[in-house]
Amino acid sequence: MERSVEILSLDDKRILLKTRGFSTAFMNAIRRLALSDVPTMAVDFVYIYDNTSPVYDEMIAHRLGLIVLKSDEALNRYRRPEECAGKEPGEVSDCYLTIELRASTGDNESRYVTAKELVIEDPLVKPVYPDTPIVYLGPGQTVFLKAYARLGRGREHTKWSPASISVLRYTTIVEYDAGKASDECLKCLEAYPAVVEALKKGGSGRLVLEGIKKTSALRYCAEAVCNGAVKVIYDDSVLELEIESTGALNPERIVYEASRILDEKVKRFADEVSKAGVEEQ
Asked: How many separate domains does the chain show?
């Protein structure tokens, strides 16, 4: 089968691809790498110099780590995590990004401190969701801290994962025989109008269900109710990959980086096999 990739839908947070001719193992590797290996920028070290809020230092640090930072430009400007391993902030200039927060309230003031108040030294890295609350300050309270963000990978901590959803689906095919369909079967299949319509038209055939995400009810009806009127088949040569971004990276960038990382891993593996004395046949 000829290999192809088609973009079914794309916006600033989500991409849906249809692939033909790529193996399930290959596409599943892309799916997993999108979650675990594509790097993004996130806070890793926090030094708190003053905190008179009711929230513990550790909780503030944890909340800072979970703030999603726009990372498309950061991938080109900062070293990869493996290059910065063991390095402290300040040792290598392009390993860490400095973030500062100074916030306080007057004697008669209370308010939330949000992500938009973070002073980030790199203007190209900014909070994706600036209204994310960090801490609530009561009257006369203060928080002053410095944080350091770096590129990291989701396998280190989920705060570095660029995708909130990464799903691979087979194409669902229904083989049907209207002559065997009972009223009970049609009622069971109400959630799948295309199948019901085909059965009502009569005859037998094969129906490709495009864009169907959930098929557990379809399988139940086929196996428990429809008595041979419907058979569900999954075509693993035509796959749909859906990735939803946290906002740290554009979704198409996530797919590109996952593909590039897989290519690097395969080349590295091939090099190691070659060093071991295995010759290409």
From this structure: 2
CA distance 260 to 39: 12
Extended beta strands in the chain, E state? 4-10, 14-20, 40-51, 97-104, 111-114, 119-120, 133-137, 142-152, 163-177, 204-209, 230-245
Residue 110 carries which side chain, given as an amino acid letter? S
- Of the residues 117, 145, 160, which one is the last residue of a structural domain? 160
- CATH number for the domain harbouring residue 200: 3.30.1360.10
DSSP-assigned states of every residue in 123-149: TT--BSSTT-EEEEE-TT-EEEEEEEE
For residue range 170-208, list pLDDT tens digits in order: 999 999 999 999 999 999 999 999 999 999 998 999 999
26 and 48: one domain? no
- Which amino acid is present at 145? L
How many angstroms separate the CA atoms of 131 and 113, rounded? 9
Dihedral (CA of 254, 32, 4, 194) sign? negative
* Ranges 61-65, 157-161, 274-278: which has the least confidence: 274-278
Residue linked to tokens 């991938």? 75
Amino acid at 124: L
Print the domain residue range for 50: 40-160
Q: What is the pLDDT of residue 58?
A: 96
Tokens found for residue 138: 């009561």
pTM of the model: 0.87
Contact status, residue 43 vs residue 147, Cβ threshold 8 Å: yes
